[in-house]
Design goal:
This protein has about 120 residues and is mainly beta. The chain has one domain (about 30-120): Thrombin, subunit H, CATH 2.40.10. It has one helix at about 60-65, and strands at about 30, 40-45, 50-55, 70-75, 85-100, 105-120. A hairpin with an 8-residue loop joins strand 5 (about 85-100) and strand 6. The chain starts with about 30 loop residues before the first strand and ends with a strand. The relative contact order is 0.26.
């Protein structure tokens, strides 16, 4: 695993998943907080009980704040009618992959492994 300098985005990696994920999501978000920068609230592209794919614009400063293998607190925001996971999770960046087509062409997906639920909101 290579170190990422604070001011440069990591290289995208191949997408890998350990279990099937729901991909028909509406209005699901992941929230990340870092010291000294605005809160990042990003679209969740796919979701399972153990992980989430978070959509990020290719040039986003968010990519300079994360690295593969890094553990972060992630708050999942789901619509009230959704049966999807929600709340605060200790999570790990598993991969950063390019999205080649579809609605999010030109974006990246950050694969987050949800290690432990911290609490609900």
């Amino acid at each position: 695993m290579s170190k990422v300098k604070h001011n440069e985005a990591p290289e995208p990696s191949e997408e890998r998943r350990s279990q099937d994920r729901a991909v028909q999501l509406s209005n699901h978000r992941a929230e990340f907080k870092f010291p000294g920068v605005p809160v990042y609230q990003l679209k969740v592209r796919d979701l399972s009980e153990k992980g989430a794919g978070v959509v990020v614009k290719a040039g986003s400063n968010f990519l300079t704040l994360i690295a593969i293998g890094q553990e972060l607190n992630m708050k999942l925001l789901s619509p009230a009618e959704s049966a999807s996971p929600f709340g605060q999770y200790l999570s790990r960046v598993q991969h950063i992959s390019e999205l080649a087509g579809g609605r999010f062409k030109g974006h990246l997906v950050v694969g987050m492994s949800m290690l432990k639920k911290i609490n609900s909101y």
